[in-house]
Amino acid sequence: MTQRATYQSVAAHIQDRIEAGELTIGRRLPSERQLCEQLQVSRANARDALHHLENRGLIYRLNRIGWYVSPPVFIYDPTRTHSILHEARQHQRSLETELISATRETVSVAITRTLGLSSQTPVYKVIRRRSIDGRWALLESCYYREDAFEGLLEQELGGSLTDLVSRHYGYRQRSLNIGISSTCLNDQQALCLQIREGSPALRLERAVSVDGQCLIVEMEHWLHDAVEMRVKGESQE
What we know:
Chorismate lyase, 2 domains
């Protein structure tokens, strides 16, 4: 490759190495400087090639660390009644969970209103991040009515919260109200997922009710290129 190479040819070279298995999932790519030296191309071409592959979902960037080969997108049914861990196992994907915080506090009016509480009523707030095949892909913020989940903060919160709600608290028959929208990550969210502030994401809000009473609000922020949401259903005439 010469200095006259285009960013498309640089991107094609990297893509060929990925498809050949030379650069495997989770493998760190050479830096822009290293690509320039290895391929004898300009810094602009190396940078544009990396961003081109990122836009196609083939690679991703960890802020201030480097570029990595992306795992396949995670197929996710937001209407699921089983845990996301169960879904990961079904698709033979590796899922890891890290508990960031678990507190009792007052939260936004929008959350307390959804839970049917006054604005000053404290709730349990659980924040976790989850990785898919080694990549941080999901930030969860879950809000629980204190009167429905006594002793929640003393429970094991690093595993399946869906199973905890079902098995420990006995809320097995639940109804869901789900909203999905596009958004950009703020500085704290981006820091948790190790990417740039303002990166695009999918925001999912799930209100979980039992007998007509909302007991849980789950807020999920997915990296937009890490997930594909699919919902199964039946048409009715």
